[in-house]
Amino acid sequence: MGALGSFTDFVGNDEAVQNLRTSIAAGRLPHSLILGGPAGAGKYTLAIMLAQALNCERQPREMWSNGQTLASFCGVCDNCVRIAESADLQPLIDAAIAAREEMRETDKKETRVLIQTHPDVLIIPPDPPQLLIKLGQVRRVITGAQRAPSQAPRKVFIFTSSSFMKEAANSLLKVLEEPPDFAHIFLLADNPGELLPTIRSRCGLVRLGAVPAEELEMVLAERRPEWKPNQRSLVARLAQGAVGKALGFDVATYSAARADALVMLRGATLEGEHTALFRMTETYRAGAEGQQKTTAMLGAMSSVLEDVLMLISGTPERLRNVDIRGELEAMAGTIDFAWIERAVRGMDQVRSGMRRNLLRSLSLDAFAEEMAGVRR
Ligand SMILES: [Zn+2]
Questions:
Q1: Cα(151) to centroid of ligand 1, in Å?
Q2: Domain residue spans of the chain
Q3: What biological process terms from GO does the record include (predicted)?
């Protein structure tokens, strides 16, 4: 997700966000802070906003109805703008990795992926290929934290993952023990329990929850008005609490993939649907595009079958494909758990066939035939 203009653009977790803003305004934000919560809850977006609020040249303040003062940021001063350039992180990481690939072997080994669009704000993503935070990265944080900031009031270090190599975690302990007054360290963790207890005990902890589907739906109504209401309600559920995922969701591709998955499932569960089934699998060709299409179709099929399982097991409130509920209920009446289990195994075979680079359409046809054969 790109840069957002103010804290009010942040979706969900209002209370946690207000508490953080109050702490910044009062000058008592913990210097070492874990932001915990599931992927998509907005941990990174929030960390960037906190960095902006700490370093905004204008230091705007808002009064909350309960009389508390909330820190804010202007979004247009030089510090705000340059910090916001880190908001869309993945392209920056991709560029850093590509630059490292160009280096000589000896330099490559010494170079760790770090992102810095503002001289006083350093982003530390997990370093590929192992996707762990490494010692070289933590060392940069240690030396960085020893020097006073050059342009902003505070130095901010954002670790985007809590998966550390052992020696990196031990080394991080030293800086967490006594961070200088001007330094703030944010650790983003899907599961804070993964962090060493000695790290956790030195940090404040703020937990973000997944955003409920109903709340996501309201956000989509506002920001994706071109989607139909039943599409918004579908996407809000498929995103499973992840705001960025919901806003960036490709509804058209998912709907097309799911339509094919349904043809396949009908072919397998109803008599006389075979022609449609094989006409459909013929549109899946070999090559990269066909693989992508197959992967999307299998993904949609998984989500449909999971929903059928919810219906069979009596938890219909957890349905995600709510817009085709009638069809799912009909399916739940004709197939059982064992059938779904066989279908899932078949899907795994198609996936591993693709990995081994078999002719794709062949394995999909075989799967379709097998599914038709396993009709109850
Ligand atoms: Zn500003």
A1: 13
A2: 7-209, 250-373
A3: DNA-templated DNA replication
**Other Cβ atoms within 10 Å of 356 Cβ, number:** 8
Closest residue by Cα to residue 120 from 145, 84, 92: 145
Q: For strand 32-36 and strand 61-63, is the pairing parallel, antiparallel, or unpaired?
A: unpaired
Strands (E), the chain: 32-36, 61-63, 69-71, 115-118, 121-124, 155-159, 183-189, 204-207
What lies within 8 Å, CB to CB, of 297 at 6+ separation is: 257, 260, 261, 264, 284
Distances (CA, A) of 59 to 25, 32, 73, 82, 134: 9, 21, 6, 16, 34
222 alpha carbon to ligand 1 midpoint, in Å? 26
CATH for the 250-373 domain, from 1.10.10, 1.20.272, 3.40.50, 3.30.730? 1.20.272
Q: What is the predicted pLDDT for the residue at 1?
A: 45
Residue 369 token pair: 């035939």
Alpha carbon of 82 to ligand 1 centroid (Å): 10
User: 7-209 adopts what CATH topology?
Assistant: Rossmann fold (3.40.50)
Name the amino acid, one letter, at 292: Q
Q: 68-119, pLDDT tens digit by residue?
A: 999 999 999 999 999 999 999 999 999 999 999 999 888 888 899 999 999 9
Pairing of strands 121-124, 155-159: parallel
CA of 310 to the centre of ligand 1 (A): 48
